[in-house]
């Protein structure tokens, strides 16, 4: 299969000439190994028992290997981290080590690696990486504060976005069609339940209970639902509800596997922070996993059929999964621009901003995400509230839509079809 160039490729090309060790981390199946292999002369695959045994017995093999050295699935031999850290202390040259990991190790290294090993997060394919249409609007330009001109046309329509949610951002899965794709996604979920928890040292005594909890979490996608309400929603037909002691390991392990990807609440520097609620919004690594857990197809999404546990939400499931897809893409673009993504919600939910993209100097771009082709004054009222609150700290205001055209409204707000936004 032909390699699909990723946004993180440019980040690696920028950083490797200066840094001796970079760890590329994220969920299984997102393309970490393929990306790292393109830069490696020696590949050590620790998910192969023979190589894992050799490295465990003689970790000095890593420092003797011909660089650049890729250590794939490093978390399977956590001592590797410390070996690389010591090699960096011994003045390893830039670009010497690449580590990839699909989970945080069950036994952490003795040292965090701070100052020695830089970590880059890799996520499933953003919309602009999927080849739908060349992006016409740059998030980096929006973060510049220059209020760039906005333009461009997209052929991507609502049904196409629904198809993209179901297709997933996993490079090895999305080319498949129909039943083959569905089976691969279902197998991905089954592997989490049947194997990944065990590899993390946790025995799942009631797999059906774990699946129900994951399904309840999927139903809460793009909401700030409390953990208690998600736990209640996981109650099965027999009335059995997972206990708090049961749920905590679920959450912790799924975060270590990079399957849960919650969007943190924003903590601004201005005084109105006291009016903000800070719980995270719930997201899985890829909205296709949520759709798989909920068992929805293209027809169900477009019809707005009820699916999964009864989770209160504003709008349709498709709207929430579209928001998750847009947030996934925003996070990929923001990382490339050295920015971070949050969400903003006031107490009681009177004001809510779907995306807060924050530069290192804490100036921000506010982003609303709408499952609509057009934008009304009502759709931008929260962005206008944010403008009044922040003044010059707010660099730009953006509404991401399912429409056909990118433009600026007379009030200066950028309207951008999701497929046209890029890094």
Could you explain the architecture of this structure?
Helix 5 links the parallel strand 3 and strand 4. The protein has a seven-stranded mixed β-sheet. Strands 2-3-4-1-5 form a five-stranded parallel β-sheet, with helices on both faces. It has two domains: 7-121, P-loop containing nucleotide triphosphate hydrolases (Rossmann fold), CATH 3.40.50.300; 127-422, no CATH class. The chain contains 15 helices and 14 strands. The protein has helices spanning 7-15, 32-37, 49-57, 61-64, 79-89, 139-143, 158-167, 178-199, 207-219, 227-233, 244-256, 287-294, 298-303, 317-336, 381-390, and strands at 21-25, 42-45, 69-72, 97-101, 118-121, 137-138, 276-277, 340-346, 352-358, 364-369, 394-401, 407-408, 414-417, 421-422. It is globular and about 65 Å long. Helix 7 packs across helix 12 (287-294), helix 8 crosses helix 12 (287-294) and helix 12 (287-294) packs antiparallel against helix 14 (317-336). With 423 residues, it is an alpha/beta fold.
Beta-sheet strand percentage?
A: 5-15%
Total beta strand runs: 14
User: Can you summarize the main beta sheet?
Assistant: 7 strands, mixed
Spell the H/E element sequence.
Answer: HEHEHHEHEEEHHHHHHEHHHEEEHEEEE
Domain count: 2
Percent of residues in helices: 25-40%
CA-based shape: globular
**Unreliable residue runs:** none
Strand order of the largest sheet: 7-8-9-10-11-13-12
Report the span from N to C terminus. Answer: 25 Å
Arithmetic mean of pLDDT:
93
